[in-house]
């Protein structure tokens, strides 16, 4: 929506004849029915190696990219070593560890179920220097996270980063009770079925790269990773970011730089036009077929940090229910079924009779006020989460 508004505002200052040239553009380019192969991953010598195979989709790109399943994928070395990757999930191929040699070059070979064969060029194995630190600063926009690194040998120069975010949050109201559909009664909610505390998982979507090629020293300082918007849910309780750092060759860096330009700088008429992506993978069965991707190899460095709400002064995030609690009566017999089973209410706490002899009703509210999972999280606490 923002991109459309910007374009309309710019066009509003043009003359009438100029406005007539604004027409729907139908590209003469026709992609194959199956789309072109997209290869994403990294050959790692000290962490799991994983590659995702998918296919391009036609414009306007309003569908999920189909995964390439059932393929045979393997890593090959100039020392004649071969390491098969197994399909771990739909279109995702990997192996936990690879016994790679830093003096050997490596490539990726792919054979699809349709018999198409793809092969990357051999690439240099590049050790990645450690991450010096992942830090953050609180400003008017929110909490900005950065990464710092350097290579004393001045041998890396080109870097890429990816990250995973996790944060803990609560729903607006806590329910200690649950409706038993079969028995048509309200019972105590089992601890294992709590829906008050959730963890939200997210990962980097943009291409994060950096270069020190124009600097005297191989130092990356305060490279922005992500911004937690001011008063965002991420810091409602506890937040964690897990950062991975990769060393790249110059060609690998330039490929990602061009991809970044093609995918992230197309919002206005002043941005550069999309360019042809040329990676280091070719289709052996059809040499004229483009392949999207660039194979790199080396080690991976990683670091995790935590930020608690108490570390960020005046962080005023809050989540409250916009609707007041409603009292659901215990009868007639179909009242509980109507409110809790059909209408989507969740019991929160009981209204006890003044004599203490019974329940006069259940204060309840809609699920989006009570069930934290409806905000995109899971009630399963991550294994790395502090207790």
Description:
The chain is mostly beta strands and 387 residues long. Among the domains are: 2-21 and 32-122 and 250-295, no CATH class; 177-188 and 320-375, no CATH class. It has five helices and 24 strands. The chain has helices at residues 2-11, 16-19, 250-264, 335-342, 367-370, and strands at residues 37-44, 49-55, 72-77, 82-89, 92-95, 106-111, 117-120, 125-126, 131-139, 142-150, 158-170, 177-180, 185-188, 197-203, 208-211, 219-229, 238-247, 281-283, 292-293, 297-298, 300-308, 326-328, 345-352, 359-366. The strands form five sheets. Strands 1, 2, 3, 4, 5, 6, 7, 8, 18, 19 and 20 form an eleven-stranded mixed sheet that branches. The longest helix is centred in the middle third of the chain and has 15 residues, at 250-264. The radius of gyration is 27 Å and the shape is elongated. The model is unreliable at 1-20 (pLDDT under 50).
What's the helical proportion of residues? 10-25%
The succession of helices and strands, N to C, reads HHEEEEEEEEEEEEEEEEEHEEEEEHEEH
**Which percent range describes the beta-strand content?**
35-45%
Q: Radius of gyration, Cα only, in angstroms?
A: 27 Å
Strand count, sense and barrel status of the largest sheet are: 11 strands, mixed
Low-confidence stretches: 1-20
Q: Please work out how many helical segments DSSP would assign.
A: 5
Number of DSSP-assigned strands: 24
Overall spatial form: elongated
């Amino acid at each position: 929506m923002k991109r459309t508004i910007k374009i309309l505002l710019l066009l509003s200052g043009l003359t009438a004849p100029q406005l007539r040239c604004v027409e729907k553009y139908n590209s003469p380019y026709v992609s194959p029915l199956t789309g072109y192969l997209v290869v994403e991953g990294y050959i790692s010598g000290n962490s799991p190696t994983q590659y995702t195979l998918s296919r391009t989709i036609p414009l306007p790109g309003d569908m999920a990219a189909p995964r390439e399943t059932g393929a045979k994928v393997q890593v090959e070395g100039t020392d004649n070593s071969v390491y098969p990757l197994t399909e771990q999930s739909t279109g995702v191929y990997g192996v936990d560890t690879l016994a790679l040699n830093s003096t050997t070059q490596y490539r990726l070979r792919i054979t699809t179920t349709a018999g198409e064969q793809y092969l990357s060029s051999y690439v240099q194995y590049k050790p990645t220097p450690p991450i010096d630190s992942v830090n953050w600063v609180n400003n008017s926009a929110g909490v900005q996270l950065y990464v710092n690194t350097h290579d004393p040998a001045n041998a890396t120069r080109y870097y890429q980063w990816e990250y995973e975010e996790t944060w803990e949050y609560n729903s607006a109201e806590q329910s200690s009770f649950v409706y038993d559909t079969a028995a048509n009664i309200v019972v105590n909610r089992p601890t294992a079925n709590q829906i008050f505390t959730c963890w939200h998982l997210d990962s980097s979507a943009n291409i994060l790269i950096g270069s020190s090629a124009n600097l005297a020293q191989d130092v990356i300082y305060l490279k922005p990773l992500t911004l937690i918007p001011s008063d965002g849910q991420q810091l409602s309780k506890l937040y964690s970011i897990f950062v991975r750092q990769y060393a790249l060759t110059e060609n690998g860096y330039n490929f990602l730089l061009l991809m970044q330009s093609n995918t992230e700088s197309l919002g206005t008429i002043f941005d550069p036009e999309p360019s042809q992506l040329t990676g280091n993978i070719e289709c052996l069965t059809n040499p004229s077929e483009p392949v999207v991707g660039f194979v790199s190899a080396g080690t991976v460095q990683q670091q995790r940090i935590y930020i608690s709400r108490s570390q960020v002064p005046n962080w005023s995030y809050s989540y409250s229910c916009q609707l007041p609690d409603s009292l659901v009566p215990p009868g007639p017999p179909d009242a509980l079924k109507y409110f809790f089973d059909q209408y989507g209410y969740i019991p929160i706490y009981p209204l006890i009779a003044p004599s203490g002899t019974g329940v006069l009703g259940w204060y309840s509210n809609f699920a989006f006020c009570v069930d934290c999972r409806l905000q995109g999280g899971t009630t399963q606490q991550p294994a790395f989460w502090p207790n």
